[in-house]
Design a protein that fits this description.
By secondary structure, the protein is an alpha/beta fold. The protein has two domains: about 220 residues, Vaccinia Virus protein VP39 (Rossmann fold, 3-Layer(aba) Sandwich), CATH 3.40.50.150; about 180 residues, no CATH class. It is about 40% helix and about 20% strand. Helix 1 packs across helix 5, helix 5 packs antiparallel against helix 15 and helix 11 packs across helix 16. It is globular, with a radius of gyration of 22 Å. Pfam families: Methyltransf_25. InterPro entries: Methyltransf_25, SAM-dependent_MTases_sf.
Length: about 475
């Protein structure tokens, strides 16, 4: 489990894991594997097309100096190059830091899985982190399978390298639009799905949910991690009357969206305090969010919503996962979740103590500095409001929020191709806009109103 989160120190380690050769080549073994999976999936809705034949012969194409999957029918708008792999791995590390574990379902701590499937595995980084988590607890027999349309883990299919050297790992190259997947019924006791929303159209959602249920063994766990792609603004929480308890929240590892009351308010408040200690907030029914005020993020939201509508993709997947799991009540039970909100910087109402906000910096961080574009005199003074004091974010809190912001900026950069399709900007106009946006967000603290990243983890058990 991660302790002190330092984004800068992670990047060199990530670079050692993925090589450019792995992201631009297809081995003979993988080509035969593709043919095998396509044959086994011949009963699916999609059939082999000229596009998929091109994917076999030339799996990648270069656009705007970024590497993409060479399939014009694929809705997935992001590149698959080393830069994007780094961004996704950094986001994964941040989520693990926030959730405190690489898998949130508490049952997996006492009863670890033996056969794990990661859908849309990419480089296999999340599976590797889960492998290390279980291994460090003495569970060495867990086997992992990754499935993805893009051969980003080809080193593992050749048997020469794996995401982790002592990891039981296999990679299946397969288009998830084609069902059934090339596995027998009830093959896995844990299925993990993370950040797959940009690869799934709205009409594919139910088909994939049915496939997950088919592949899960009785008692198996389905766990889904997602992040919203459009940006909203976190507003101050409502004030809490003196002597009263805060509203119940869905806490890491303990929250519920299925009506369970197994956890106590004290446990939920402890997890709420833990999230605040890291610089995040637990999302509850009382969490107030509104449209982003930052003009650059507002423009990005408009462009992205239009671009994803053309691809029949939902820009706010965190609103879909919970209802999708709940509607499968005949097959799934114990549906639970954890949703968090991560501001991108120190927020004005935090410094002013509006709404009874706790001191994010904590008593031990009274010497921490708040990174704000306001005057130095304003930055150096603690603000008092209704008995609350804000002494500035701690270095760890600021690092986590900065990391959330960086992963969003990098995602906007990665989405250049589809965003320019709808905004009509030339390359020079786009570069100018990107430069101004980055200066505003990184140098001028343009997210001080509360613009934030919304994330969530959901899990359920098969009956």
């Amino acid at each position: 489990m991660l302790t002190d989160f330092d984004a800068a120190s992670k990047l060199p380690k990530l670079g050692a894991t993925f090589t450019r050769a792995n992201s631009v080549s297809v081995s003979a073994s993988s080509s035969s594997l593709v043919s095998k999976t396509r044959t086994m999936s011949s009963s699916g809705q999609y059939s082999a097309s000229a596009s998929s034949e091109a994917l076999l012969s030339k799996p990648f194409v270069l656009k705007n100096s970024r590497t993409y999957i060479n399939d014009v029918t694929l809705p997935y708008p992001l590149p698959v190059d080393l830069t994007e792999l780094h961004r996704q791995s950094l986001r994964t590390l941040m989520l693990i830091q926030l959730f405190r574990v690489p898998v949130c379902c508490p049952n997996l701590t006492t009863k670890p899985p033996t056969r794990v499937l990661e859908v849309g595995c990419g480089s296999g980084f999340w599976s590797m982190m889960c492998h290390r988590y279980f291994r460090n607890r003495g569970h060495n027999s867990v086997s992992f399978t990754g499935i993805d349309i893009s051969p980003l883990s080809l080193s593992s299919t050749s048997g020469l390298r794996r995401p982790d050297q002592d990891m039981k790992w296999r990679f299946i190259q397969h288009d998830i639009r084609i069902t059934p997947f090339p596995f027998p019924n009830e093959e896995f006791d844990l299925i993990m799905v993370k950040d797959l929303s940009l690869a799934i159209t709205n009409d594919m959602q139910q088909k994939l949910m049915d496939e997950y249920i088919r592949l899960l063994s009785p008692g198996g766990i389905l766990e889904v991690w997602e992040s919203d792609h459009t940006i909203r603004m976190l507003r101050p929480p409502p004030p809490i009357a003196s002597g009263s308890s805060p509203p119940a929240t869905a806490a890491p590892g303990a929250g519920s969206i299925s009506g369970s009351t197994a956890t106590t308010l004290a446990e939920e408040e402890a997890d709420r305090a833990s999230a605040i200690t890291m610089g995040a907030y637990v999302m509850s029914p009382n969490t107030a969010l509104s449209a982003a005020l930052n003009k650059f993020l507002a423009e990005y939201n408009t462009w992205l919503t239009r671009a994803l509508e053309l691809r029949d993709i939902c820009p706010v997947p965190c609103t879909l996962v919970g209802p999708m799991l709940l509607q499968e009540s005949d097959s799934l039970t114990d549906v639970r979740s954890c949703r968090l909100v991560v501001p991108f910087s120190d927020v004005r109402w935090e410094k002013e103590g509006i709404g009874g906000v706790q001191n994010c910096g904590g008593a031990n961080n009274s010497h921490s500095h708040s990174h704000s574009h306001s005057s130095s005199k304003h930055r150096s003074k603690s603000r008092h409001h209704s008995g609350k004091t804000f002494s500035g974010l701690s270095p760890g809190q600021m690092a986590l929020r900065r990391t959330a912001l960086m992963t969003v900026i990098q995602e906007i950069q990665a989405l250049e191709s589809v965003l320019r399709e709808v905004n009509g900007k030339s390359q020079d106009e786009w570069d100018t806009w990107m430069g101004k946006m980055m200066h505003d967000l990184l140098q001028e603290n343009g997210t001080s109103w509360g613009e934030c990243l919304e994330i969530g983890a959901w899990w359920a058990r098969k009956r």
